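User: structure tokens for this one?
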Amino acid sequence: MKKLKLLMLIIITFLMSNINAQVDTTYKFTLQQAQDYAIKNFFLSKNAELDVKAARKKMWETTAMGLPQLNGKMDYSYIPDIPEVNFPQTLMGVNKGANEPIVGGDFRDPNFYSVVPGRSVKMGVTNNITYSVVLTQLIFSGEYLVGLQATKVYMLFSEENYDKVKINIKENVASSYYALLILKENKSVLKETLDNLKLNYGYTKKFYEQGLVEDTDVDQLNLTVKRTENSLRNVENQIEYLSKLFKYQIGVNVDTKIEMTDSINQLLEKNIIEPTSYKFKLEDHIDYKLLETQERLKHLNLNVNKSSFLPTVSGFYQYKDQVNTPDFNTNIKHIVGVSLSLPILSSGMRMAKVSQAKIEFDKASNMKQQEAVRLTLKSKQSMFDYNTALANYYNEYDNINLSKKVLDKATIKFKEGMVSSLDLSLFNNQYLQAQLSYAKAIQDLLVKKIALDKAFNKL
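Assistant:
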């Protein structure tokens, strides 16, 4: 009994340790790892991958239509009242011998003839099973030939759509990753600012108690502290919401702990580039490739409708037999043949379908041409936006250094009584805004860079 209790205690301890390990599991992601994880686990990516598998099965389904088809059939029949055919009595000549022909006899001699009695023959059996096997082979079908091409193009379309889904996932994950890092940086800035404000607020209260400053100076700093606390609380709420959104985007439970291992500086090093190294190739862009494939599908659909005017030829072989053979059996066991289906008149229905397919093909061609112009303009706009964001980033980098320098001098003068609390609050707000603007400039630069990569098909 003691051993059993000890064993149960060990098992419970092991299970509890596993549960705690699962609860405390933290996922650590670089941006690349987060994107790869999302591609494998986000439901849109999973569905797009399933679409590719379904297209592959559809291609085989269409291919199999042109391969030999073998089908079996079995019928049971019960005939309660079987019809009969009565054969009357007949006279037949007698042979001279077993193998001798009836020649040389005397037809007038009654002994020359023998009597064959009459009989009735049943035309079926009461219980019977008829079975057959039919082998068919498509010899020629215009619709099949074009359909076979269409399934291959549809397979390509599914693969390209999967690529587009992966690109969109990468873009969304990167945007959230950047936003979370910037928000956490803003949180650190606000906490640091709040600590400095509280420190200066403590100095000001002591100066007020000694009669060196007025109560308005104390109230002014206190107001700035409260506003900064509100800003910090707002940023914390944003981080909480965006963290859940990010977890949803990469396909993990919202209660899972995650840690982003890429730093802002690392991401900046990767994303500050020479834009002149980017060359736009329209044919490589996924959106253009999708429309190009869609145009091919529309053209094949047009050909399918045109092929409805062509005949269809197929060959077949049939074997048919019965378990119980009746006395009078007319069943033909082996049949080989060729079937020809020739469309003759449809009162304009087929031509109307061809016209509709031609219209859809023209629309697809127009969309492709329009998208080519849009994507070209988009590439130029994304390059302009990136250059603008890069210039803004450098300006904000300089601004934050200048505002920091001004605030440090103002803080020293405030402690010496040369600057009022109102002026110190203004300088502090100026530095805080410079830090937040710098963080926003970083985020804008990173977002514009990913838009640039998407426009130039580099995601």
